[in-house]
Specification:
Layout lengths: L15 E14 L2 E13 L4 E9 L2 H13 L3 E2 L11 E5 L2 E7 L6 E2 L2 H10 L4 E7 L3 H14 L3 H8 L3 H6 L1
Parallel strand pairs: 7-8
Antiparallel strand pairs: 1-2, 2-3, 3-4, 5-6, 6-8
Helix pairs in contact: 2-3
């Protein structure tokens, strides 16, 4: 991951949560089987701020609530320019590989399952996304976050290089 992770405060944000996946887990004990649930949740304000969390509990609703709380603790700021991302990005986590490509206005979010939930929570309106490799929702969410955290807008690049914004596009 890059060093440009910007943590965000939750105090005055209008966050929407999206449930990505629920998994039923079984623990076999001497007395029989014990069922519990794990839920992966994505929260975002649909304006560049997003976070994900994992909640585990013996009931589905409790697991989702724990996931939402965990997601609110991991909010980050993502550069979204004119409803799309600034540039193409490849990323991976575990066996999941994702490819994000900016799209022109009117394209919509062309992405599947777990990636769609993350991208819509960020507030991206037009994007082409492809997941390669594993379709495990946990790894897909983490890979998508890795890709989004690698994104840099022109202002950040100019600041990092110590040059004016004009030189970023000309040089």
């Amino acid at each position: 991951m890059s060093g440009n992770i910007k943590k965000v405060r939750t105090s005055d944000l209008e966050l929407k949560d999206r449930l990505v996946a629920i998994n039923r887990v079984t623990k076999v004990t001497k007395g029989g089987r014990t069922f519990s649930f794990s839920a992966i949740v994505v929260v975002g304000n649909e304006d560049g701020i997003v976070g994900w969390g994992l909640g585990k509990a013996s009931e589905v609703t409790t697991a989702i609530a724990k996931g939402i709380e965990a997601a609110k603790k991991n909010l980050v700021k993502i550069p979204v320019i004119n409803g799309t991302i600034p540039h193409e990005q490849l990323a991976k986590f575990g066996g999941a590989r994702v490819f994000l490509k900016p799209a022109s206005h009117g394209t919509g979010v062309v992405a599947g399952g777990a990636m769609r939930a993350v991208l819509e929570s960020v507030g991206v309106k037009d994007i082409l996304a492809k997941s390669k490799g594993s379709s495990n929702p946990h790894n897909l969410v983490k890979a998508t976050f890795n890709a989004l955290l690698e994104l840099r807008d022109a202002y950040t690049v100019a600041e990092h290089r110590g040059v004016s914004l004009d030189k970023v596009f000309k040089g």
